[in-house]
Amino acid sequence: MLGDAAVTGRRLTRDEIESRRALGARAAEAGHGWRSLVRAHLVAGREHWPRGADPDRVLAVVEQAVDAFADGYERAQRLVVRKEEAARREFIDDLLHGRGDPGRLAARSERFGLRLSRAHAVAVAEGPEKYDETDPVPRQVASDLFARFENRRILFTTKDGRMVCVAPGDQDDVLTHFAKRSYAATGRAQVAIGRSRPGTVGIGHSYEEALNALDVAQRMGLDEPLLRASDLLVFPVLARDRQALVDLVSSTLGPLEQARGGARPLLDTLTAYFDTGCVAASTARRLSLSVRALTYRLARVRTLTGTDPTDPVDRYTLQTAVIGARLLDWPARPLSSTETTL
């Protein structure tokens, strides 16, 4: 082609351009590096330079050839990247949701940096926005994470707008660092860490525990930046028998709806009272009330419900019912609603 172009001054034909593109794609699929390929083209151009040829004519053809070759190479590279990303995303979905054959998942895990013969724990970060892996925040968190733990077998990804980190269960420093970097990158991310569990199914369970911890934190108004599922086990235990929880809230707190203004003011009073360790002065300050007004509200609760918040025996029932009301989002959602979920 160089010789013909030097004599005739022509450019590459459509078929010749397509042949260069096809070779570029083959080179990408074979795994050849781009730098060595460009060098090879320049060496070939120099070795086969037609004697006495017009440089402009020859270089114009070299430019066309390299450009077409690069186009084919880049197209193939993009296709490989898309296939790789699709395979990675499929693996992550199967891993986090406990789908697929465990043996096949374990075989694929090595390719993505995990060794599933070990126990693993999952941390999930929920920020003020939804993210995917191309966004600046996840890229920054991932960069910080792998810069510090480059030799660890960990997995970072995004799922449903949240950032997710999977690490060996005995490497809590990885997950706590992930939590710190997530909070620093977003300004107010909340991170939940599931319990360490063995095997492929264990990762899915740890992931679900972390998601449930975030959900409980939202329902209960917990604003700690780092949550551990192991510290919140009482909530899923309470929620496990939904009907029993509904009955408890209905029978214990239902009478509060008879109060002027509904149940919400008195329920908020009980919540603050229990959150402050049943200290009247602290509760009054939190609610911007006088101690006398607080005492009146607590007495009103005793009158309506028949249980005394200041009595140690009654207090346990009331506090459990208050926790149940927050889990059920009552009274905002009626207890009879079939849409209520935990």
Structural notes for this entry:
With 342 residues, the chain is α+β, with helices and mostly antiparallel strands. It contains 14 helices and six strands. Helix content is 61%, strand content 8%. Strands 1, 2, 3, 4, 5 and 6 form a six-stranded mixed sheet that branches. It starts with a helix and ends in a 14-residue tail after the last helix.
Write the layout of secondary structure elements.
Elements: H1 2-8, H2 14-29, H3 34-47, H4 55-97, H5 102-109, E1 119-126, H6 136-148, E2 155-159, E3 162-168, H7 172-186, E4 190-193, E5 197-198, H8 199-220, E6 226-228, H9 234-240, H10 242-253, H11 264-275, H12 280-287, H13 291-305, H14 312-328
Parallel strand pairs: 4-6
Antiparallel strand pairs: 1-3, 1-4, 1-5, 2-3
Helix pairs in contact: 1-4, 2-4, 6-7, 10-14, 11-12, 11-14, 12-13
- Return the string of H and E elements: HHHHHEHEEHEEHEHHHHHH
In terms of per-residue confidence, which ranges show pLDDT below 50 for 5 or more consecutive residues? 338-342
Total number of helices: 14
Q: What number is the mean pLDDT?
A: 87
Please summarize the sheet with the most strands.
6 strands, mixed
Structural class: alpha+beta
